């Protein structure tokens, strides 16, 4: 996807609880973000500020080219507040260039081993944020989105539409909050460490790791959101106390590994992998939620780089005074 999907369209904390004691999604923290992003470059990340997520160092400069060799400069990284184009043709160009930039960055990030350490370079973080913001804009402007898809290369149009659709569905569930300061956020575990948790749960319960990843992405942006919901749902996979007692297997609801195993246990008991729609509806009684999770999961299955892109989507909160970003550069 690399074209994503905001995620996550994230869900703002405090939107609404799940009925029948099911886990509760983080209330569309401004669709705490999602859509896909892409790749990384080398460089150690700088220490994260309290309550903020990663910020990364720039990639190392390349070797000096031989005399007579033309210098090819990489595209400049987008600033965190880079303007969003208005015209569909300009939006399509921005999405195409950002997707290519992300793809290269994610490949570099993975080759450098940063996905296992939690160090994410600006070459990944900044394009992922811009892509997320582009998708969120399209999710709120359906007519412009349709014209933008038509201007995109065929290989990008489908993934872009899937991510924007997922974000739009999650935004439809969001409820504005009055005090975003109540949201506690922190840096997530490294991307490859999370994959290890997802795959372990898949082996034990037969639930596709991509589906588990998509659920965590939508619920808490891979564990960035650590505040309980207004109904009492807790942890990186957002469980209500009674549901955790039944499916938590004696673990800690705030422990990432335990929470992912419990989510797989719950989804399996609710029909997965035989019927993912039924299982996800049990997890959160909303068909819009079900559709969004499955769209993101399919994007990850199509290209694992989409997982790494989603991992770098930031947390947005929809407030009574407008949208506010809580994490990122």
TrEMBL record:
Residues 198-285 form the Transglycosylase SLT domain. Residues 57-83 have a biased composition (Low complexity). Pfam families: SLT. SUPFAM superfamilies: Lysozyme-like (SSF53955). One of its GO terms (biological process) is peptidoglycan catabolic process. PANTHER family: LYTIC MUREIN TRANSGLYCOSYLASE, MEMBRANE-BOUND LYTIC MUREIN TRANSGLYCOSYLASE B. This is Transglycosylase SLT domain-containing protein. It comes from Planobispora longispora.
């Amino acid at each position: 996807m690399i074209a994503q999907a905001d995620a996550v369209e994230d869900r703002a904390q405090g939107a609404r609880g799940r009925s029948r004691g099911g886990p509760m999604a983080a209330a569309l923290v401004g669709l705490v973000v999602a859509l896909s992003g892409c790749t990384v470059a080398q460089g150690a990340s700088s220490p994260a500020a309290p309550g903020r997520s990663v910020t990364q160092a720039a990639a190392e400069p390349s070797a000096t080219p031989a005399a007579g060799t033309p210098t090819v400069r990489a595209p400049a990284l987008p600033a965190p507040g880079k303007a969003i184009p208005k015209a569909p043709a300009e939006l399509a160009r921005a999405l195409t260039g950002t997707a290519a930039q992300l793809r290269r960055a994610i490949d570099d990030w993975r080759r450098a081993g940063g996905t296992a350490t939690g160090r994410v370079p600006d070459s990944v973080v900044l394009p992922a944020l811009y892509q997320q913001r582009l998708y969120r804009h399209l999710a709120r402007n359906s007519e412009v989105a349709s014209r933008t898809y038509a201007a995109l290369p065929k290989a990008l149009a489908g993934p872009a539409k899937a991510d924007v659709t997922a974000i739009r569905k999650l935004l439809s569930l969001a409820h504005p909050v009055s005090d975003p300061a109540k949201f506690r956020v922190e840096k997530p575990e490294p991307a490859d460490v999370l994959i290890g948790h997802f795959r372990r749960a898949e082996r034990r319960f037969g639930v596709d790791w991509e589906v588990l990843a998509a659920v965590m992405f939508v619920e808490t942006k891979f564990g960035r959101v650590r505040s309980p919901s207004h109904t009492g749902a807790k942890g990186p996979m957002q469980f209500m106390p009674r549901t955790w007692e039944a499916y938590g297997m004696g673990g800690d609801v705030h422990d990432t590994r335990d929470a992912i195993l419990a989510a797989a246990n719950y989804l399996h008991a609710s029909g997965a992998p035989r019927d993912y729609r039924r299982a996800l509806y049990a997890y959160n009684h909303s068909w819009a939620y079900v559709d969004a999770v499955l769209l993101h999961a399919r994007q990850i299955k199509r290209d694992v780089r989409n997982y790494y892109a989603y991992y770098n989507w930031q947390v947005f909160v929809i407030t009574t005074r407008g949208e506010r970003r809580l994490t990122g550069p």
